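Researcher: Here's the sequence for the chain we discussed earlier.
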Amino acid sequence: MRAVVYDRYGPPDVLRLDDVAVPVPRDDEVLIRVHATTVNRTDCAIRGGEDLITRAGYSYVTTGSFFRAVRRPVLRILGTEMAGEVAAAVTTFAIGDAVFGVNAGRFGAHAEYMCMREHASLARKPGGMPYEEAAAICDGALVALGYLRRADLRPGRQILIYGASGAIGTAGVQLARSFNAHVTAVCGTRNVELARSLGSDAVIDYTREDFTRNGET
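Model: Thanks. This is the structure I predict for it:
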């Protein structure tokens, strides 16, 4: 299969297209034919390897050791977010299922095929959603959902979402509304209407009002 690989840390030109073996899924994994993927901040930070702390952190997440991947990458194929089609399944999914998800810490999505744990952040793709859109919503939605769950949102509770126009913020507004919480969105002037359209109960333009001094909590 074709994959975008890298063998050393550095700028984008360390990436190259190569022919590699199709991964073989383990007993608890599914094999996915990738239709769409993203290049996100995690991919760029890991590929750049700008400092030893970044490299050590990447090394620990991927190998369990702080030192193994300090000198050179261990996992040659980046990419955590993807949408695709199940090519080999275990029990939860069937061959041919359209899925999307995040392969956090394991990467591999910048290739024609990748393996993911069956019970990882993987779900069936909504039928009317293009693969490109499904791959692109993963990061913001999952990060937002994780923190909103910790906030224990429910009807009658209030939440303020600062930065409500970014990937995490726009997902956060919509998810918070699904919990029936009262949502105040904070963003810049050009994104006020966007924040309103996502279902915010109130919108504060931070260029005109300091929300930390309006007496609200």
